[in-house]
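Aim 2, interim progress. The first record below pairs a target sequence with its C-alpha cells.
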Amino acid sequence: MDPKPIIYNLDYYENMLRMYSATSEHITKIRWDFVTETKATHVLDFGCGCGWFRAYRPENIEVDSFDVASVPQTGILRKNYDLVCMWDVLEHIENYTHILAVLAQKTRYIALTVPIIPEGTKIEKWRHFKPYEHCSYFICSELDALFQSIGFFIVKKGQPECPPRKDIWSFLYEKIDIET
C-alpha cells in the first residue's frame, strides 16, 4: 500500500506539536547559535511550521513568520529582512527556484536546514527518502551552486543538530554584491 501524500494542515501541525515539543527548544537554540554572526534584528522564518523559531527568539529580535498552512503566523510584514530562515523547508518544495529568487531580493543572509544525501548512499534506502513528503533531494555542492546562482555564497555549513537529527545539515549563505 502506497503512503498518502502529506497535507500540511492544522492536524499536521498539531501532531508536530505533540511529537516534537520536548526537543524544539533545544534545536531552536542550536539554530539561533548557528546564525548569531549575522547580527540580525529583523528575521523572516519562511515555512515556520509550529512557530518554534519565533517562540524561542532572543530578546530584541523581531521574527515574522510565514507558512503555507493555516497555522498561527504573522505573515511577511517587511520589505526587507536581515535574515531569512528556511528550517526543514526546501526539501518540501517542488519548484523552489522562484521562491528563492524572491526571498533573495529581501535579505542579506539565508539560513536553512535540509537533509543531505551521504556520499555513496542509495537514495531509495536512505532514511530521508520520503517521496510523498520530500519533493527535492540535495548534496552540498548542488545546494552551494544553487545559492551562488542567485548571488549568495556559503558562510558556513555543518551538522550542529546531529545528533539527534541524522543527515540534517545547516547552511548559512550571504549575499555578495560583485561589482562588474
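The second target in this work package is listed in the same format:
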Amino acid sequence: MIYDIEYYENMLRMYSQSAEQICKIRWDFVDCITPWHVLDYGSGVGWFRAYRPEGVEVDTFDVGPYPQTGITRDSYDLITLWDVIEHLPTWNPQWEKTQYVALTVPILPEGQNIVEWKHWKPSEHLKIFTEDILDALFEKYGFEKVKSGYPECPPRVDIGSFLYRKVE
C-alpha cells in the first residue's frame, strides 16, 4: 500500500460521509477519560481532529503527505491508533509518553482460517492480532486494558476497539 496524495484524495472521496459518525463513536468510546492533549498517530485525512470536542487539542501525525500538525508535545493524555497498529513493523516509543492509548484493529476471530479472512493482507497488514496477543503487547510496555468492544460494527466486521491505561 502506498500512502500518497492519491490515497489521501481517495479516502476523502470514499469516506467523508461516514467520518463524522465514526469519529463520534470513537470520541464516545474514550469518554471515560478527559483527554485535553491528544495525538492522533496515523491520522490519515485528519477527521478525528476535525470532529473533536470543544476544548480538546489534537495533534495529527501520519507518514503520508497529508496536512498535519505533527508531534508538537513531549507527552499526551491520549494517543490514538485508529486502524494503524496492524500496518506498523514495530512499537513506537512515542506511545509510552501517554497515560492512555486508544485503538481500533482487526481481531482474528477464534477458529477463523487466516488465509480466508477478510483482513488477511500480508503486504498491508504487517501484524495480525487476537485480543490476547494485543493485551500481551500492551502489558509488555506497561499498559492495562480499560475497556474493549466493537462499537464501530456493523459494518466494520472483526474490528475491535480498545483503550489501554499506563500502569503507574
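The chain has one domain: 5-166. This observation will shape the mutagenesis plan for the next reporting period.
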